[in-house]
Amino acid sequence: MKKYMCIHYNGTWQNLTCRAGVAYRDVTPDPDEREGSALRLPCIDPVAQNAEPTMISGTRRPLSESQLAHIARRGTCEKLRLPTDEEIAEDKRQSDARFKEHMDNIKNDICPTHKIPIVKKQVGRCVYAEPCGCRLYQGKI
pTM of the entire structure? Predict the structure, then answer.
């Protein structure tokens, strides 16, 4: 969950509608114009997103004139709701708990997906779970 992203946004590649039932095409100006269509979605504030530091360099390139032109044409949505600081903190707490459970399962020889006892098997650069065959991680046992 990000402070610049609507709480209903669930991805446009996998879904035609958001969690609130709004069709992305209905709130995106010129949805068939592929170039810049993500910048015209009302669900994500690209200016605020661009202000967020990156994990690698810490900074982002300034938005181009072309990008800013698409942003100026952003659609609107009556169901747009940005998360509160409390919701962001709770989402992070839940995400951290899921990650810890996943890693604890691997450490304790339990498949994180199937929740069954496993034996780790090295195959090339990856470690897999037997008997289910799930890939656990890339690295050495």
Answer: 0.76
Degrees (nearest 5) of the Cα angle 128, 102, 135? 15
Provide the token pair at 139: 């690295």
Question: Could you tell me if 116 and 129 lie in one domain?
Answer: yes
Pick from 53, 106, 47: which is nearest to 74 by CA? 47
Three-state secondary-structure class, residue 135: strand
- Domain extent, residue 110, equals 85-138
When pLDDT is cut at 50, 70 and 90, the band that residue 25 belongs to is: very high
109: left (phi over 0), alpha (psi -120 to 50) or beta: left
134 close to 114: Cβ distance less than 8 angstroms: yes
Same domain, 64 and 101: no
